[in-house]
Amino acid sequence: MRKYIIAGNWKMNKNLSEAIQLVSDLKNELAGKTLNADVIIAPPFVNLETVNSLIKDSVIKLAAQNMHFADSGAFTGEISAQMLKSVGCEYVILGHSERRTIFGETDEMINKKVHQAFANNITPILCCGESLEERENGKAFEIIEGQIKAGLKDLETTQIGNMIIAYEPIWAIGTGKTASPEQAQEIHAFIRKLLTELSNEETANNITIQYGGSVKPNNAKELLSQPDIDGALVGGACLKADSFRDIVLSV
Ligand code: PGA
Asked: Which of 163, 180, 214, 217 is 20 to 30 A (C-alpha) from 174?
């Protein structure tokens, strides 16, 4: 059975005291509620340890927004999988479009990171998505197929079955322009078919495929009711506890 998973990507927002406030608010907002989705938050690196200690008595799980693919060494400014594990991260977002476009991450680097995450018992949330230009040129499927095949290269079927995939059309991220539920479903169904080819039908049917890109309380329900949309990767709307709560409660 696949699970609904709602993840909040804080991006480069919230200093330590703001992070403490947001997590406390979120815990209060979710307390006593019946949840049909797993809840993950991905604060900036410097807040992970504190946030981890605050969520210990809650349902909230911890993710990092990125990591390096090497074990350790001379990589100034980078963070390793083992470091993330040591502060309680169970998940890591990999290949976010901001990492790909602003920081030049390639499919090859992202694939190494995916392997490194598994080697350290961290579940990767692998992001994929096309730009507006690629969509307008009819290239969305081709781009997504390329990113997924490259990201999953040389993985075992059981590893593929333990990943989370996030489809995030770049043109919908932070723009207020969401993909329509039909547009998102079309890509999600395509991704699941691709995952079937890369693993098998049973494995692919159990993989959570999140949608991301301007998910808000007022559009979450419709998106999440699509048959192949199993969760959301939320940016802007996760920075306020009440709006993130509403998205979590929309499944
Ligand atoms: P957004 O970001 O919800 O602000 O569009 C989503 C993301 O980039 O993960």
From this structure: 163
pLDDT band (50, 70, 90) for residue 29:
very high
Q: Verify whether ligand 1 is closer than 6 Å to residue 179 (CB atom).
A: no
* Residue keyed to tokens 């075992």: 156
Query: Ligand 1 within 6 A of 219 CB?
Result: no
Choose the catalytic residue: 29, 68, 96, 105.
Answer: 96
Whether residue 127 contacts residue 97, with contact meaning beta carbons closer than 8 Å, is answered with: yes
- Amino acid, res. 63: A
How many Å apart are CA 225 and CA 2, to the nearest integer? 14
Query: What is the C-alpha separation between 85 and 104, in angstroms, rounded?
Result: 25
Residue 96 a catalytic site member: yes
151 contacts: CB under 8 Å, gap ≥ 6? 94, 95, 107, 110, 111, 114, 126, 128
User: Closest Cα partner for 171 from 133, 143, 204?
Assistant: 133
Q: Distance between CA 224 and CA 232 in Å, rounded?
A: 8
CATH architecture of 4-248: Alpha-Beta Barrel (3.20)
* DSSP one-letter code for 180: P
Q: Where are the alpha helices (DSSP H) in the chain?
A: 16-30, 48-55, 81-86, 97-102, 107-119, 132-136, 140-151, 157-161, 181-198, 201-205, 217-224, 241-248
Stretch 206-229: mean pLDDT, rounded? 97
